[in-house]
């Protein structure tokens, strides 16, 4: 259970770092294109939702520990953690593609 909590916290921290990096890319430069800005904004939205779901998952884990009802396969925890994973990786991919469009193709 402790490792599940740590993993959720690490993924939240990574998503916050990637979100800050993505927001730093939104500063106007002559190399920005509409596609790269759109992908960067979309990745920021996905990463923010991932952070929110991670906080919900962490709260669910803490609640389960407090109530001595440890169930890592509960429906509430399952959709929160899977949503955190999927949105985190989708946000990272979109951020990478947006960065590629911004820096490599220009």
Short descriptors:
106 residues; mainly alpha; 3 helices; 80% helix; elongated
In short:
By secondary structure, the chain is an all-alpha fold. Helix content is 80%, strand content 0%.
Structure, explained:
Helix 1 (2-24) runs antiparallel to helix 2, helix 1 (2-24) packs parallel to helix 3 (75-103) and helix 2 (34-66) runs antiparallel to helix 3. The mean pLDDT is 82. The chain has one domain (2-27, 41-103). The termini are far apart. It has three helices and no strands. Helix content is 80%, strand content 0%. It is mostly helical.
Shape annotation:
elongated
Name the helicity range.
over 70%
Oligomer: single chain
SSE sequence, one letter per element: HHH
- Give me the number of helical elements: 3
Secondary structural class:
mainly alpha
- Care to count the β-strands? 0
The overall average pLDDT, rounded, is 82
Name the poorly predicted regions.
none
Provide the domain count: 1
Q: Determine the N-to-C terminus distance.
A: 47 Å
Task: Note the topology.
Blueprint: H1 2-24, H2 34-66, H3 75-103
Helix pairs in contact: 1-2, 1-3, 2-3
